[in-house]
## 1
Amino acid sequence: MNIAGSLSYVANKRQDQLPQGQITLLASNFFEQFPTYEFLKWVMKDYPLFLDKYLLYDEVRVLLLAYLVE
């Protein structure tokens, strides 16, 4: 949700209002933020749709971070 929320700020040209804590969270991927779900790393390949969406969200996270830290 942090990725979608951050993207919403940027899309609406309100990145200056984005809380610093939210930007800080973008530095961590899903598995760093939620280590309980680390087991999913090993089974995601069996769920291609889930894997595609995860990779897309992670790519957006990295791009957002690069844009916001610039």
## 2
Amino acid sequence: MKIFSLLSPFFLLVTFVACGTTDSNQKAKQEANNQIKPLATKNLKNAKRAYIAGGCFWGMEELFRKQKGVLDTEVGYIGGDNQNPTYDNHPGHAEALEITYDSTATNFREILDYFYRIHNPTTVDRQGNDRGSSYRSAIFYQNEAEKKIAQEVIGIVDQSKRWDGKVVTKLEPYVKFWPAEEEHQDYLLKHPNGYTCHYERFGSFLDRKE
């Protein structure tokens, strides 16, 4: 899984067993193919994209793909130094998620709200067992409007004091998103027992009234 040198031999054993090509995993892969959400073409005229990073992209995708208004998800690399990055060679790139969403059903603010509920935005270059700039918390804004919304949501999250510490999410201008290898797409649908450090910690920050 991620940065194997940091993990114990026991955890490595568990991880490799969980990701092996057993009959149950083969069955899971088939079920995953049946569950992958087809892009809702009727909503394409209202489709927008968002680019975020918050640790291992496997867990991020698994949670976001189920959210209201999300039409499609794709994991990949963004914000780094090289062209055509790969899982084994992506210096400076973050493991990121491209979210295609129906702008009549959700919006950028709500996407960021959920983002801050499922990953710890107060740890620099770290998420769960994963360490390094690949696992930084980042929002890749495509225009000044998105940057402003990101700043506003970060302020709301900090004011809530739900997290122990200040948000350290980097706001980086979007340049190019490079899709990851097919084996990483919809990974936790294919490997239900695979590694993840993402889960819902809180309810919406936007609903909080104080």
